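Protocol step 4 of 6.
Sequence for Ferredoxin--NADP reductase (Microcosmobacter mediterraneus) entered exactly as in the expression construct, tag removed. Do not edit the line below.
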Amino acid sequence: MSQFHSLTISHIERLTATSVAISFAIPENLKAAYTFKAGQYITLKTTLNADEVRRDYSLCVSPKSDELKVAVKEVEKGLFSKYANTKLNVGDVLEVSEPNGRFIFEPNAEKTRTIVAFAAGSGITPILSIVKTVLEEEPFSNMILVYGNKSKTDAMFFEDLINLKTRYGNRFHVHFIFSRTNEEDALFGRIEKSTVNLILKNKYKDVTIDSFYLCGPEDMIHVVKDTLTEHGVKDSKIHFELFSNPANSENTTIEVSDGMAEIKVIVDDESFEFNMNNSKTILEAALKQDIDAPYSCQGGICSSCIARVTEGTAEMRQNNILTDGEVAEGLILTCQAQPTSSKIIVDYDDV
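Step 5 output, structure tokens:
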């Protein structure tokens, strides 16, 4: 389970009118704790308006950079994102979790392959880490990026991507697509089926693509994934991560037994036994008992709250993270899972 540490902000960079990059100083004794894989995220924790607030942000640097940096885009009614963009200063201290996440790219310097990524908006953050890792650590591999935004001025890390293109030449191909402005050497519109077809069947029709990484709004990810599937790309080659709760999804109705369940929760080598109402999620019940269970988004889109059911059964309202195989092995997102048996044991340590 990821631990939190108090880290000091060492640098803040304005990326766009509504986004900033935040870097943290890592004490020497915590260097090992903050090693990470490309695509992973950290959770930032602080207190705002007397309430504890936790938010996940993907690391936007490569694992070899010796940096710990995230980018925060201000969103409408976003409590922490507005605070980060307008109030945070160098020298401020936040509680920062150790790196987490399953949306990862693991480099192999001996491989020769082509990786394709589709990103929209702030979905660029984990993708940028993957792009840099491919270019830095796989000298024989190529990277193709399709990156969508409203306009060039809204595009986070635009100059960084141009600089990477200049540095790595034909090993890095970036295609910008803007929905509100026409720009030279850029596509117009949004990332949609025709965009995927353009990449697969036109610009890179003779290229063998090893894997695809998708990050952005749910609608974009579904369109890209479905189109790739139509072209015969195997699910094992398609990796994706949502950066916000699905806007239009409805929770699955779960048939649960009436009344209460006897539950045992194991976390950090401690066991807690209590009764819980089956209408609540396992995470809700654990937090109500003041158990220090890991969590962040509470919306089923991060992997912070994963645990294993070792006895009994549970069903999830929604699942955007775990594979069918992992669910069959007993893994659950506790923020989405409700007991469907009268007794259940949930182990956060066994993941």
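Step 6, annotate. The CA atoms of residues 157 and 328 lie 40 Å apart.
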